[in-house]
Amino acid sequence: MQNIENFTSAPKAHFYDQIFLNLDLSELPEYNSSASRNGFSNHAKLCTFIVMKCECFSYITDLLDFLQNNLIIAHYCGFDITKPLPSYWTLDRFLNQIDHALLDCIMQSQVKKLVELKQIDSSFIAIDSTPVMANTAQNNPKSFRKNKFAKDNHPQSDPDCALGVHTATNQINERNYEFYWEGTKIIS
User: Fold this and answer.
1) Distance between CA atoms of 168 and 58, rounded to whole angstroms?
2) Domain total in the chain
3) Cα torsion for 77, 80, 86, 92, to the nearest 10°?
4) According to the model, what pLDDT value does residue 45 have?
5) Does this model's pTM top 0.70?
């Protein structure tokens, strides 16, 4: 039996408990027809990736270390903490094989639930966009033409493009920035 000592603060444990109690995973089959030999449920594996995003982990190994040190959260995810947690390969395979349209459906149902519970206000819509660099020689980093980003030196290859700026961070005093000619935006 594993040592079930954990280092989770009460507010963090409560946060994950509330997330998983209100999470509608009815669209996701709990087990695959070819379930892993340890029998980890798809619901529990999906919950681990919610933890991964909430904790801002980039790597599954960091997620697994976190769950080993916070077994109460692993329990809230749906794992039997008296047994070993899933391996890196089990979680990696799950993440690579899950249908992302299914994740969109789960996310939409969660947003609807939060609106019903009056936790979020649906009277406003947020739109995020990603700039796409215009296909012009002036965006080529190997081009050393003078004034290639001057407003009066508009690229002839794309008359609709506009001048854009990209910073390395969102800090107000950031001085590390670069200009580019932007063609269009991808809206999501």
Assistant:
1) 19
2) 2
3) -20
4) 93
5) no
**C-alpha–C-alpha distance, residues 148 and 144, integer Å:** 8
pLDDT tens, residue by residue, 43-84: 999 999 999 988 989 999 999 999 999 999 999 999 999 999
What percentage of the chain carries pLDDT values higher than 70?
86
* Same domain membership, residue 22 and residue 46: yes
Can you spell out the DSSP letters for 44-99? HHHHHHHHHHHTT-SSHHHHHHHHHH-HHHHHHHT--TTSPPPPHHHHHHHHHHS-
Residue 147: which domain range? 129-187
Q: What amino acid is encoded at 50 in this protein?
A: I
Q: Which two tokens stand for residue 67?
A: 């769950």
| 134: nearest Cα among 148, 155, 165, 153 | 155
Looking at the fold, whether 66 and 133 belong to one and the same domain comes out as no
Predicted confidence at residue 33, as pLDDT, reads: 52
